Every structure is written in C-alpha cells, then in structure tokens.
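From the methods appendix. Each design record in this collection lists the tokenized structure first, followed by the designed amino acid sequence. Records were kept in a plain field format so they could be parsed without special tools. The example shown here is representative of the layout used throughout.

RECORD:
FOLD TOKENS (300 positions):
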C-alpha cells in the first residue's frame, strides 16, 4: 500500500515534468557563421523585473504542443534590442497562450549578435529565424501542423527579426545551406516591432547591436524592412501603442503602408496608451490583442 501511495504522490509531478517543453538545438550539426568560444549565456531578472537572457551563442527551439492542434503553427521571437531576449513574457507566456487556443507554438532562442562567437554577427539572427521556419516545416507531420500554416510572431527587436524573415525569404542568410525547404512564413505578427533602421524612425539601439556603431548605407537599407515588402510578402498583423517611448509607432505604420502599396493583406491595431514591452497584456485596456490575432488567423 505504501508503494501505491507513493505512486499517487509522485504522479502529478511526473505529469508536470512530461508536459514541460524541452529546448531542442536549432542545428543538428555545426552552427553556421559561428566561432568556437566559451558559453557566455546568462539569464537574470533585470531592473524592470523582466527575465532577460544575454550571450546566447547556441540557438534553440522549444515546442509547445497542444492536445488538440488545429494545424496552425506560430514561431515566437522574443524581443530584447538584439542585446538579449525577454524569453518569459515575450516567449513562454505567449507560447502557452497560443497552445491554449490549439495553436502549436515554438519559442526560438536565437543568437545574440556578438563578434566573440559570430563571424558576421549581422546575419546570425536571420540565419536562426530561417532555420526555425525550415525546421518546423520539415517536421510538420511529426508536430501535427500544416506546412502552409506556419507563421511567425516577434516582439520589439524580435519583431524586427520576424519582419526581416517575412521580407527576406528569397535571400539565403546561410550561403552554405543546401536544404531547399521554403523559409517563407505564411503570415507574420509584429508586436510593437522595430521595423526600420533608417532615420528618423529607425531604432538606433537595435541597429547598433546588430550592425555595429557605423553601418554602411547598404546594410541600413537591407534591414529597413518597410523598404523590403513585396507582393510576395506574407499577410501581416501589427500591434503598437501610440505612446511607445521605446520604438516609435511610425515603425508599424510604415510597414502597414508598405503592405497596402504592395497588395499584401494587413491588419493593424493601435492603442492610445500602453508604452513598450507589455507582452500579452496592455495594462491600459481590457482589450486582448491575442484574441484579435487568433480571430485574424481564422481568416487566412
């Protein structure tokens, strides 16, 4: 009897452990564009109470698998100004909310640009984003998702990475990649995103972290995604607050206008207030942007 009692005591813990998502290395072999270096990754709670991971040199992807998947997949890129990633409130919490809606979610811990472990730090995050899309599409059957229902969502600088992936899918970020699996996302959700690196609306902090203090004009234009939208770009969903003091709302406006000019379906929700970095919950309103996004996904 005592063994049976112990079994039932341990069963809830075992179920929790079985349900806890596990990080998977994003690359099965060598990481492209990588320099061997000591592991500099560190996760701390910063002065704003946000869990923040810096120094990521080994990218991972973490699946969040619903019991009854509806076939849609969303790959999540947390923000952090390309100096780190806010992997909890812009990663895990978002993935859990999507999972509760029957959407299969994947949180990507992409490389933080750093010359100490990257040959070309400007290309490392995009390489990881493309690899994440490639990985999910190749494993669509395994993860019970439809290969033409694989989209991305990004926050702040993670929104810049998502917008870059949404506009540069015909560009091979890793020149040595032989896999021809499509890296075009089927939709892109951009939440208070950095879009532009161009003055006057460009986010100078993200630009410096990704490109260095003195990028040339070609690099700036390449990563100014409002200039890279084409008719082939995927449908977009944008969320921003007008009083955002971190990333100017003009970033979302510029991307939305570019979608309109190119005939790309786009939906945008602007809040009067909310500031920057609010994650799932804008504290100034009872409105839930995630519910709006889930409804939007049903129209695609």
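DESIGN:
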């Amino acid at each position: 009897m005592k063994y049976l009692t112990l079994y039932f005591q341990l069963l809830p813990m075992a179920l929790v452990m079985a349900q806890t998502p596990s990080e998977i290395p994003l690359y099965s072999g060598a990481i492209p564009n990588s320099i061997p270096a000591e592991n500099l990754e560190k996760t701390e709670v910063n002065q704003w109470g946000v869990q923040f991971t810096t120094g990521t040199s080994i990218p991972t992807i973490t699946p969040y698998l619903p019991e009854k998947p509806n076939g849609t997949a969303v790959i999540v890129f947390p923000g952090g100004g390309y100096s780190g990633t806010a992997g909890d409130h812009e990663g895990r919490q978002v993935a859990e909310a999507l999972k509760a809606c029957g959407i299969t979610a994947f949180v990507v811990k992409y490389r933080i640009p750093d010359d100490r472990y990257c040959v070309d730090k400007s290309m490392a995050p995009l390489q990881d984003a493309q690899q994440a899309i490639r990985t999910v599409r190749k494993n669509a059957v395994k993860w019970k998702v439809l290969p033409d229902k694989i989209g991305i969502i990004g926050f702040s600088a993670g929104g810049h990475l998502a917008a870059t992936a949404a506009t540069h899918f015909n560009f091979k970020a890793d020149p040595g990649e032989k896999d021809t699996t499509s890296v075009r996302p089927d939709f892109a959700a951009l939440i208070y995103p950095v879009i532009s690196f161009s003055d006057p609306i460009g986010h100078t902090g993200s630009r410096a972290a990704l490109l260095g203090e003195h990028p040339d004009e070609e690099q700036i234009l390449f990563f100014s995604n409002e200039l890279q939208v084409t008719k082939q770009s995927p449908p977009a969903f944008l969320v921003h607050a007008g009083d955002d003091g971190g990333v100017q709302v003009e970033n979302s406006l510029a991307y939305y206008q570019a979608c309109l000019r190119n005939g790309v379906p786009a939906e945008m929700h602007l809040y009067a207030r909310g500031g920057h970095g609010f994650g799932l919950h804008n504290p100034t309103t009872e409105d839930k942007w995630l519910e709006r996004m889930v409804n939007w996904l049903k129209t695609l």
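APPENDIX NOTE: The first strand starts at residue 24 and ends at 25.
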